[in-house]
Design a protein that fits this description.
The chain is mainly β and 132 residues long. It has a domain of 91 residues: OB fold (Dihydrolipoamide Acetyltransferase, E2P). 5% of the residues lie in helices and 34% in strands. The protein has 1 helix and 6 strands; from the N terminus they run ββββαββ.
Length: 132
């Protein structure tokens, strides 16, 4: 029997008008790093994600779709978590890393962010999937 590869398959399917493609599993989100003041990210907010690695400490992050509709994530921080309480799934968000804030103990400085939102005109489904 001959081996079939993805290159052998058609890249599109003739739609008969019935049904709509539904995403049941999305590709893994790429983590966004805002490294220096002025770094900025714009995306559509999807919701939160809780990760429990087998060999490590659990953590939470915010999920977005970027301008190319690819899943991306921002790790949570106190400032981002407080700001994101005012954001709903489906809203467009712009996050700007503005400055470092020194701590009393002179440990690693805290990152300060400006978070802006453009409200969505239609709500996003509770499961975070975008409407077609």
């Amino acid at each position: 029997m001959a081996k079939i590869t993805a290159a052998d398959l058609p890249t599109s399917i003739n739609e008969d008008g019935e049904g709509v493609w539904e995403t049941v599993a999305d590709e893994s989100a790429q983590v966004i790093l805002l490294d220096k003041p002025g770094d900025q990210f714009i995306g559509t907010y999807l919701g939160e994600d809780h990760i429990e690695p087998e060999n490590g400490e659990a953590f939470d992050r915010f999920l977005f779709h970027d301008s190319e509709n690819k899943p991306v994530a921002l790790n949570k921080s106190y400032k981002l978590e407080e700001a994101m309480k005012a954001v709903e799934p489906g809203d467009m968000v712009r996050v700007t890393y503005t400055k470092d804030i020194t701590t009393r103990r002179n440990l690693n400085p805290l990152k300060d962010y400006k978070v802006e939102v453009r409200r969505s005109s239609s709500p996003m489904p509770a499961d975070g999937r975008q409407y077609q």
